[in-house]
Structures
1.
Amino acid sequence: MEIPLVGQMVPAILLLPADVARPPAALLLHGYGSRKEQMADAVGRALLEQGIASLSIDLPLHGERERTMEIDAVRNPLVLVSQWRIALAECGAALEWMAEEAELDGHRLALAGYSMGSFIGVMVAAASDHVKALVLAAGGDLPEGTPFTRLIRTIANPIGAVRRLNGRPLLMIHGKRDRTVRPEQARRLFEAAAEPKELRWYDAGHWLPNTATEDAAAWLKTQLSRRR
């Protein structure tokens, strides 16, 4: 399906649990180089087993939108910054769409992001009252000492964002051997967040095991059940 977001139609997958009227739902955000199908097939299926609907979207320059820009332009940092801003706006609009969708309980919405989706997700959650619970998988603060960190922080500061959750439940799941988003990045973000929060470690690298996905789905069921 496609849904209208910020002036364009965005490819999306909506999964609805059988025999559940107006279920709670989660917006699912994939990682760099990934696509909506991977989030729907993994996280979305786990959520269905918990009676939770999900909406997975292709972020800019990913999935069905991968060829929307010339490759030389994609290498330009200013273009990447503009695409990041578009992603933030589209994710906020996706939550608005979910809040108004008759088949979903718009008062019980969550967000789950993986890797790049976690960096985007914490920013979106900080700006949206629709998000009642947040799962960040293989995410954290920005890496220190990279040439683009200062530029990225001007539009995406995970530490500042997580402090604006204002007591909404946060679950972080992370691999002990992650070399893409390192454990110290996860710890920095977790320490900046207010309670209630939880950080669960798994014996994995950047790709988390199925048990982590199942644990996160069960956690979301508990959190969204409390917000009827």
Note: The first helix runs from residue 36 to 49.
2.
Amino acid sequence: MKNLTKYYLDKEILFKEINEVLPKELGSRKKIGIYVGTSVSKDYYAIFIVDAKSRFIRKNANDLIELCEKLANFQEHNFKKKELIISSAICSKAKKFLKENKWSVRVDFM
């Protein structure tokens, strides 16, 4: 979590509160980091961190959007900012699909 706050501090986003949600709480078995944060400017963030060796494809993007909907139901809140932070390669179709659904995709983490 320290790396995450430092990463966003470099992007000039300061969080007032940030909490981790385990994928198991959402009924998922995926190995993904899920964080819910509130910035100082009162924007609500849903942050998903994927650290995989294989390419992130369109099917994974569909699963991610589904997981975000479960998170919104679990937290009883719709998030203003949805972000995917990924360290592996991402398929151009998956990136375009996420952008169309108002996601921010960052490939430069860790």
Note: The longest strand covers residues 15-21.
